[in-house]
């Protein structure tokens, strides 16, 4: 199967550091592939909070910088040394630069072939869930191996990762304590498996955690908020508790004395997904789990809204407003 590849494409990029005004939707060259690369024509791509860190300068990057972290699409060209994929194959993958009509990707890596004839709806679901589901799966197995009966504190419990964490914790017979800022978010978290609910706009998180755990504290916390919740999370953990810090939604955690971990023998981790899926067997293990959970409908991915690629600036404002529930998705123009 042969495809006509244009010289230019539409992408979403940033050309500086700042607000939403530096987000550009414009023409950009289609990347040229080497003998070991494939070229993917994207269909859907997921919106992730991490993009705001690049835009705001928390994470450095060369400019202009095409945004995006995950996508689904179809292979439209391949290098002469590529033997494991064919043009026409539908794929889901994790990569930079997916807010684009075309993405260049090595034929080996964080990419999986989808069944022939995968529907548009399934393509959207994989694009919405891939990065965050693999994050939640690997974190609950490796960053902290969740056990039956554990009490786990989950921040942003109605976000993309949060809703998946709630479901995985329920599957493991653990007690998910969901933290969110509105009644609607907490009700959604409950629908997705959270057992205990804390309204951070009205309740003191630490007080409620100690009430729920009979004063003992939680076994672990998955904290994507960062600066604003660091002290609360430390206080909410039980002796030998595990602090999994994986986000900066409120800003970077300031430097602190490591001795603060000693009184309760706290374990503090700052993991990233790539550290758990770097080897081919790791990628295969977690993607197989993800596909099995989706196909068996044991795991539900809640899509808040699908936006056209050109409206990423609207999606960015929505997700950063903390008003969204679930995952935001961009549809790529064909």
TrEMBL record:
Gene Ontology terms: cellular component: cytosol
Transmembrane regions: none
Gene Ontology terms, MF aspect: mRNA 3'-UTR AU-rich region binding; NADPH binding; quinone reductase (NADPH) activity; zinc ion binding
Entry-linked Pfam families: ADH_N, ADH_zinc_N
Protein name: ZTA1-like protein
Lineage: Eukaryota, Fungi, Dikarya, Ascomycota, Saccharomycotina
Matches recorded under InterPro entries: ADH-like_C, ADH-like_N, ER, GroES-like_sf, NAD(P)-bd_dom_sf, QOR-like, Quin_OxRdtase/zeta-crystal_CS
Domain of life: Eukaryota
Gene3D superfamilies hit by this protein: Medium-chain alcohol dehydrogenases, catalytic domain (3.90.180.10), NAD(P)-binding Rossmann-like Domain (3.40.50.720)
